[in-house]
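In the lab's daily routine, each protein ends up as an entry in a very long ledger. A line of letters takes care of the sequence, but it says nothing directly about the fold. The fold becomes a row of whole numbers, each drawn from a learned catalogue of backbone shapes. The protein below has been through that process, and both of its lines are reproduced in full:
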Amino acid sequence: MFLEDTIKHSKKGGWIEVICGSMFSGKTEELIRRLRRAEFARLRVEIFKPKIDVRYSEEHVVSHDENSISSTAVDSAQNILLLSGDVDVVGIDEAQFFDNGLVEVCNTLANSGLRVIVAGLDMDFRGKPFGPIPSLLAIAEYVTKVHAICVRCGSLANHSHRTSEDEKLVVLGETNIYEPLCRKCYQDDLSAEKKRKR
């Protein structure tokens, strides 16, 4: 678990934290936990999410456990720079839905002395690196990978398996079209799918 007290808070320099993992792994829950602790420490916090993510709320970041925190929905990563003045901590949820400009935005914010906390899927439903997350992992000072529980065998899950036939990269959904799977169950499902398509 990430412990904030291991970090020396300083106005001299900022940093980037990335929370990543599959769907249902607790990424947003951990993001909210860190942001609330920053608020308790009387730090000025601003939270952003992509405008396309309206699954739970247009004005809040909401976890699967229905914990929420007020946020600002933005169209692009550049808008985060415009709207994050006079704060100490910037939180960004569902980062995989932003363009690759998010990497430079996060660097700019951290270079100006802010703590930047980013949460997002590290892999898409095909098991491929997703959006700007791989680049953010490379430049972050702190990385936390969280895991769900495989719905088939109970092992740690790191894949977001899509149960629908839709092949588009971005399909918003919950348990109705996604399930967390471990590596073995995910590979077993891919093999079964290939056999069906023959």
User: Anything to note?
Assistant: The radius of gyration is 17 Å. The first strand starts at residue 15 and ends at 21. The mean pLDDT is 87. The first helix runs from residue 27 to 40.
